[in-house]
């Protein structure tokens, strides 16, 4: 059995509302013969006679009246949806979820208030996690990732870099001195991220200066590393955007030793979403405005 679609219901509704083939044709924007063909096709799909013709006039069968009532309700739903979508395009509302690593969440916090202030009813939720969220399943609307997307359904909107430097606390430098060259790091306690079998990239940079005769510290993540460094435990690698805002720590060397590329992405299924588009635009503008903070370069 054929499956009815909206056009089948539309011809029934036009006939019921207008009371004639000519009137239905005018509403549907077609000629009378087309209405007659579409009516016949609809009767075939539904497997029932919808109207009984009598010259130019016709009457609806009981089955036709049921279909006409259903068409009326469907038309109301469609019209309401159109009005709602149109209103959202003019005044977008709802929540847009941005998934990012914890370090990025610290930096992007002002964006939440910026969007709320610019668009009443539009809200940004920052989801901070090391794990990648599935955009195709709607776990997030937008993602900021440090790995290039390989799924062709993921759309790249913008790319940027995060700079990393070595940091230590002012108290630590007062007690142990400020290294002048990378080789001087061998005389200092190093705060590293990751396990010995799987060091993180910034830890790999300072691992080569590890001195087995000196104590070292390993922590699980960047937040833990920053806490240890702020407490004066030693020297470690942190993102400039995260660490430069701290009053308790300062750079060991002036220039970043690394730049990590990141991508702002969304799933192609959200391409037509006005609320997602607005937040994407705000996010990209925010990242461009804060380029110096992110890269650690003046």
General description of the model:
This protein has 298 residues and is of the alpha/beta class. It folds into 3 domains: 6-90, Winged helix-like DNA-binding domain superfamily/Winged helix DNA-binding domain (Arc Repressor Mutant, subunit A), CATH 1.10.10.10; 94-161 and 260-288, Periplasmic binding protein-like II (D-Maltodextrin-Binding Protein, domain 2), CATH 3.40.190.10; 162-259, Periplasmic binding protein-like II (D-Maltodextrin-Binding Protein, domain 2, 3-Layer(aba) Sandwich), CATH 3.40.190.10. 44% of the residues lie in helices and 23% in strands. The chain has 11 helices and 11 strands. Strands 3, 4, 5, 6, 7, 8, 9, 10 and 11 form a 9-stranded mixed beta sheet that branches. Helix 1 (6-18) packs across helix 2, helix 1 (6-18) crosses helix 4 and helix 5 crosses helix 10 (274-289). The longest helix is centred in the N-terminal third of the chain and has 29 residues, at 62-90. It is rod-shaped and about 105 Å long. The mean pLDDT is 86.
**Helix content, binned percent:** 40-55%
Mean pLDDT: 86
Shape: rod-shaped
Question: Could you tell me the number of beta strands?
Answer: 11
Helix-strand pattern, N to C? HHHEEHEHEEEHEHEHEHEEHH
Proportion of residues in β-strands:
15-25%
Per the CATH scheme, the topology name of the largest domain is D-Maltodextrin-Binding Protein, domain 2
CATH class of the largest domain: Alpha Beta
Number of helices in the DSSP assignment = 11
Distance between the amino and carboxyl termini? 69 Å
Low-confidence stretches: none
Task: Give the biggest sheet.
Answer: 9 strands, mixed
Q: What is the assigned CATH homologous superfamily of the largest domain?
A: Periplasmic binding protein-like II
What structural class should be given to the helix and strand makeup? Answer: alpha/beta
Total of domains? 3
The CATH architecture of the largest domain can be given as 3-Layer(aba) Sandwich
The rounded Rg comes to 32 Å
């Amino acid at each position: 059995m054929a499956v009815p679609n909206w056009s089948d219901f539309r011809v029934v509704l036009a006939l019921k509302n207008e009371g004639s083939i000519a009137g239905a044709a005018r509403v549907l924007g077609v000629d009378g013969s087309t209405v007659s063909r579409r009516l016949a096709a609809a009767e075939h799909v539904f497997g029932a006679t919808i109207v009984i013709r009598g010259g130019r006039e016709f009457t609806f069968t009981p089955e036709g009246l049921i279909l006409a009532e259903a068409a009326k309700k469907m038309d109301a739903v469609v019209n309401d949806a159109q009005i709602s979508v149109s209103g959202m395009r003019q005044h977008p509302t709802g929540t847009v979820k941005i998934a990012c690593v914890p370090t990025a969440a610290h930096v992007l916090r002002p964006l939440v208030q910026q969007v709320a202030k610019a668009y009443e009813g539009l809200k940004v939720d920052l989801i901070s996690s090391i794990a990648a969220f599935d955009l195709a399943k709607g776990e997030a609307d937008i993602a900021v990732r440090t790995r290039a997307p390989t799924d062709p359904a993921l759309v790249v909107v913008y790319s940027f870099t995060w700079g990393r430097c070595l940091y230590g606390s002012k108290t630590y430098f007062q007690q142990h001195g400020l290294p002048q060259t990378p080789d001087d790091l061998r005389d200092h306690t190093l705060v590293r991220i990751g396990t010995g079998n799987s060091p993180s990239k910034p830890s790999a940079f300072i691992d080569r200066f590890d001195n087995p005769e000196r104590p070292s510290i390993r922590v699980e993540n960047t937040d833990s590393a920053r806490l240890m460094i702020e407490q004066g435990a030693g020297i470690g690698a942190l993102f400039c955007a995260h660490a430069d805002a701290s009053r308790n720590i300062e750079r060991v060397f002036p220039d970043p030793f690394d730049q990590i590329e990141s991508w702002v992405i969304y799933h192609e299924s959200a391409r037509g979403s006005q609320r997602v588009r607005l937040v994407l635009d705000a996010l990209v503008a925010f990242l461009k405005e804060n380029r110096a903070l992110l890269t650690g370069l003046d």
